[in-house]
């Protein structure tokens, strides 16, 4: 109903503009923002986690956006202006940043925020205001179902975790598992829910379930309990800071079994923090830097040249996201929120650096993840 009313208002506005143009004798350039060459100018708001303990996520994501913006603008069909706000990884700050961006009538759409916890408050607000929003790292269950203006291009935990678990269980003939998760974050709790559901489907025995909080530094009690029960595999839903420390402390306690992690665990920062202790982590992701695809290698080369470091999954997802936005803008033919939203929903078979991507009816992801592991200090295919 809301969409129909909005479209009616847009149609009335367009008709009024046409009449005014006819009366004045001037030609109309609706949707082209006044550019005689037909270039579509679009202002996109970005909400990113740039300061705080999880800033590596936001830095990679923002770098991915900026690199894509540079390339897209150089191509010239669409010109994108990014307006970036810091969420500090907190719900209230993310909402404040979103409201600031949404108050600008020239903002066509939003990208971000970084965390699912943040999207749970920002998504409903964007949907209520009829502003398209896409998460590039929000993988908790239910994000696109927030509303018709809410999308994501990041593979949800419900696809990634089962893929990683299946391969790990088969390779290591797993019968018993221990569950470990952060119980004060939407993403990590959602990851745990998926792990628990998949464990039940596979008929695995759960020897213990342990919890922790963001910012915790001592996991000795949880890990000692896990070690005493001798599981074959640890299923851990954690952000990279806590996840890396957990793995480091686990190895120091003599726990050598593999870990299967959720999406928050999937960052080179795990290796930077945990070092050799990160070996044995298994995750599923759409991004694998070892692919021989020219698009993938071209992106890596351009990213390293721009930022002096290799891109991770979060940079790659952000990079593809802005290209998806550019394609939707081109298909819409104008920088209009509703026209853009409808064009975005119709994206099918987009060939990006992550592979072939489509939106389903809810604005969620349709694509296949790749299962990778950390071995010898780097991510490799898990075979």
From TrEMBL:
Domain of life: Bacteria
Signal peptide: 1-21
Residue ranges annotated for the Leucine-binding protein domain, each copy included: 43-377
Presence of the UniProt keyword Transport in the record: yes
InterPro entries: BCAA_transport (IPR051010), Leu-bd (IPR028081), Leu_Ile_Val-bd (IPR000709), Peripla_BP_I (IPR028082)
GO biological process: amino acid transport
Keywords for this protein: Amino-acid transport, Signal, Transport
PANTHER family cross-referenced by the UniProt entry: LEUCINE-SPECIFIC-BINDING PROTEIN (PTHR30483), PERIPLASMIC BINDING PROTEIN OF ABC TRANSPORTER FOR NATURAL AMINO ACIDS (PTHR30483:SF6)
Family from the record: Belongs to the leucine-binding protein family.
Name the UniProt record assigns to this protein: Branched-chain amino acid ABC transporter substrate-binding protein
